[in-house]
Amino acid sequence: MHMPAVGRALTFFLFLTVVISLAGGLHYFIWARLVRDLELPPALHRTLTTLVVLLFLSVPLSFWLSQQFPLERMRPLMLLAFGWMGLLFLTVVLLGLGELVRAAWSLRHALASELGPPDPERRLALARILGASVAVLAGGLGAVATHQGLTRLFVKEVRVPLARLSRGLSGFTIAQLTDVHVGPTIHKAFIEEVVARTNALEPDLIAITGDLVDGSVEQLREHVAPLAKLRAKHGVYFVTGNHEYYSGAEDWCAELERLGIRVLRNERVAIGGEDGFDLAGIDDYNADRFGRGHGADLPRALDGRDVERELVLLAHQPRAAFEAQKLGVGLQLSGHTHGGQIWPWNLFVRLQQPVVSGLSRFGETLVYVSNGTGYWGPPMRLGAPAEITRVVLESSKPA
Known about the structure:
Elements: H1 5-34, H2 42-68, H3 71-111, H4 120-151, E1 153-162, E2 172-177, H5 188-200, E3 205-208, H6 217-224, E4 236-238, H7 242-247, H8 249-258, E5 262-263, E6 267-271, E7 277-281, H9 298-302, E8 310-314, H10 321-326, E9 331-334, H11 345-349, E10 358-362, E11 365-369, E12 386-395
Parallel strand pairs: 1-12, 2-3, 3-4, 4-5, 7-8, 8-9, 9-11
Antiparallel strand pairs: 2-12, 6-7, 10-11
């Protein structure tokens, strides 16, 4: 079964409406603080106002153009548009900090009567100093974040002790890829690099934990095709992320199976024979919103399993850890958070997810959350480098 075209169009329309409304408010805030409040010369005021309007219009225009033309032709424009969105975020964050400075200055005058009323000239001078500082700092951070987002992909090794893992499998390696987001700005060349670097690790197993794509099979088939060259002794496995459901999850599951990648939908497989471990995979945490049999169902995946065998779970969102802890999962591999991608977004991600990045423990369950292999939206990373994760399973079972 396929998600009706009308449903996809409505979802995209609602998403675009929210994006435009939010973008409009943020652009107005930037204009107010960096143009209006600085009392600039009229010519400069008009020029910067026009620039802010054009930058705002670039957001919906880019989304529309991305639906009309081949991805390869649109990549430069999309990089610029998404890059501005990242710079917009950094600018708004810094302006927010500037508001705290303004508030402290105003409070000082309110509490200290001997200082008298605020001097308009000093107020203007403070606004200009803050405005210039924000512009310079946002530009610098944006340049650093763009460099890291477009050029830095690390192999990160994580060693995980597991109490039920047989000693014969100690040292078993899993290469985790997640949140690649093949789409408007991430294309075939990047996937070829990821495949080459992953295969060079010679992993025993490869796990792709969701949000692989941002677009339909028809749009992206050529760009994900190199994934067919992934090689691991015990196979390549995939679980859905939330973005697969925006892009046609059923079609993508079928396409990945065609490429030789096993899709685990609330299922488990035995790895390594009698002395091995179980590998389970569940649908995305929010997949039930899309109906048609989708939705995370860990009890179903674990039904009838031998509780003496070690259990590794692939689950896109870290929130699955609460149920995993109750059902005897030894290790959960997740993504979704991007490690925050651009600081300080990680602070907001923490409000929704129990782990933002790295290895954490929930009772007897260990949860590893990758920063992600690609990026979403702005081609930027700040404080959360992209990674291919080499997970090394180590037996802590008594001899």
